[in-house]
Amino acid sequence: ADVIHLAQNIKLGLRPRPQPQPSQIKKLTPISQIVSRYYMRMTTADRPGVLAQISKILADNLISISSVIQKETDVESQKAEIVLMTYPAQESALQQALQEIEKLEIVQEIGNLIRVED
């Protein structure tokens, strides 16, 4: 009977809509609970100890650095561009760390923050 009903609806141009089953309904994970690797680019003062201060904040928030690059800058500007890649970390921990990093006097700008999927 269901097949005949389906065939009649198709003949009439009616397309059946799939009904979601309870097992198909997915809960969205809050963004704060997402775990991802992150790419961060920031402009900082070019002086000793800058990377140590940033690394400590990340470590205090259980965020581990996968790689770091400090790009050479003009000596006169006394600015450094630091690019960090993290190991997987929880979004809420990263946001907390960023708030702390932004308060540092040595950080002039956090230019990019990008979630990276493996």
UniProtKB/TrEMBL annotation:
Keyword Ion transport annotated: no
SUPFAM superfamilies recorded: ACT-like
Signal peptide boundaries: none
Pathway it works in: Amino-acid biosynthesis; L-methionine biosynthesis via de novo pathway
InterPro entries linked: ACT-like_dom_sf (IPR045865), ACT_dom (IPR002912)
ACT domain ranges (all copies): 39-115
Keyword Signal among UniProt keywords: no
Keywords: Amino-acid biosynthesis, Methionine biosynthesis, NADP, Threonine biosynthesis
Gene Ontology biological process: methionine biosynthetic process; threonine biosynthetic process
Protein name according to UniProt: ACT domain-containing protein
Organism: marine sediment metagenome
